[in-house]
Amino acid sequence: MDLGELLLISGAEVMRVEDTIIRLCMVYGFTKVEVFTIISSIVLTVQNGEGDTLTQTRRIYARDTNLGRVEQVNALSRHICANPVSLKTFQQEIKRIRDQKAYSSVSKCLMYAVVSAAFSLFFGGNFVDSITAALSGILMFEMFCLCQHLYINGALKNLLVSILTALAVLGMVNLGLGEHPDKIIIGNIMLLIPGLALTTSLKDMLHGDTLSGLLGLYEAVLKALIVAMGFAVVIILAGK
After folding, report:
1. Are 28 and 11 in contact (CB under 8 A)?
2. 59 secondary structure, DSSP code
3. Which of 99, 120, 153 finishes a domain?
4. Last residue of a domain, one of 53, 73, 99
5. What is its main location (predicted)?
6. How many domains does the chain have?
7. Strand arrangement, sheet containing 41-47
8. Any residues with CB less than 8 A from the CB of 45 and at least 6 apart, and which?
9. What is the pLDDT of residues 157-197, one digit of tens each?
């Protein structure tokens, strides 16, 4: 259940979560395993050799994208399936993966700047636009960090960050830093589009996990609409 939770909160598809749990349960001696997973919950029922049935439910409250963690969990599950370890060792490995930090705040901030600048150039902006996009990308990252400290929920956080970023871009363009606000904003929007979540939900539906796929698709589309609405409101009110 702990490994399944790590996979689900890190952006793995439902098929991978259920397959990992089933394989590990079979390795450790359960004779029957039933798993039901959606993007917000895991329900596991197992039966041992004596016929006893156990059920556990794990509620998932927050999810993010961390493909490095997904890869580590996959590697650990494959290793355990080939060479089962003690419960203590198993728990230590889970804790190691859970506590491991993927990137520092400085690295994430630089990634926001580079990705914003690159997409601004890709969609037709000039060099000055890319510099402005990089600066607004850094501002976007800092606003995300502030929203997390204030415990603002995901939908409202995306809306506020979109509005404030659009205002910052228009302000910098008015000051002469940047020439095409639309090209700059496109670079910033690409950081907020839930592309992986959308792809994962479609994958789930193609695999037959229709309910989880539809929930993921709905969430991804809703996030995209909120982001678009935040930028659009500012652009329309500013007459750009």
Report:
1. no
2. E
3. 99
4. 99
5. membrane
6. 2
7. 32-38, 41-47, 53-59
8. 33, 34, 35, 53, 54, 55
9. 888 999 999 999 999 988 888 888 889 999 898 888 888 88
CA dist., res. 187 & res. 10, Å (int)? 24
Secondary structure of residue 198 in the 3-state scheme: helix
Note the helical H segments in 62-194. 67-82, 87-99, 105-122, 127-149, 154-174, 181-192
Statement to judge: residues 135 and 226 lie in one domain:
yes
Q: How many residues does the chain have?
A: 240
Query: Is pLDDT of 35 > 90?
Result: yes
- Which pLDDT score is estimated for 68? 87
Degrees, nearest 5: CA angle 49-54-59: 145
The whole-angstrom separation of Cα 23 and Cα 149 is 38
Six token digits for residue 45: 């029922």
The first and second tokens of residue 191, run together, are 């950081």
Mean pLDDT, the chain, integer: 89
The span from the CA of 15 to the CA of 113, in Å, is 34
